[in-house]
Amino acid sequence: MKEQSIFYSAIVEGIEIKRVIVESNISPDEPYTLSIVGIDSRTATNSRRRIVSALYHNQMDLKENNYVTNLSPMVAAKHATNFDLPIALSIMDQINKIPQDVVDFLKESIIVGELSLNGDIRGIKGSLAIALSLAKTKKKRLQNNFKSWSNYS
Q1: Is the previous residue joined to 73 through a cis bond, with omega within 30 degrees of 0?
Q2: Which of 47, 55, 61, 84 could form a disulfide with 115, with the two C-beta atoms 3.0–4.6 Å apart?
């Protein structure tokens, strides 16, 4: 297991695009939990339910560890679904479910996407604006769709 995983995402606030750092840590000594900080608690609960369900339906069991994911800077509740995909990917990276070459590719990307309960990836509002702003973020691409999770289970 890796000590920490960091991916990058973004949100549209007014006419501004703001980069958001999605970082996850894992602690095998704690009982199972998934905590999301950097958004309000009700929104974090909803995101946590979607993410855990999506990973479970794709044969990824999170029962053995304590996961903490931080969104920085803090994000308004209305943007929370944007981060389902990068949070899930950071957890998958932590438990070594993503090959390192794919992790390296993703670290050069801005990752956005909402997860359904079965793991389908849904688009988010503002994807085009985020894609058009990539030069400012110093990232090479916007990653908001994957053909299959099964490649990583």
Answers
A1: yes
A2: 84
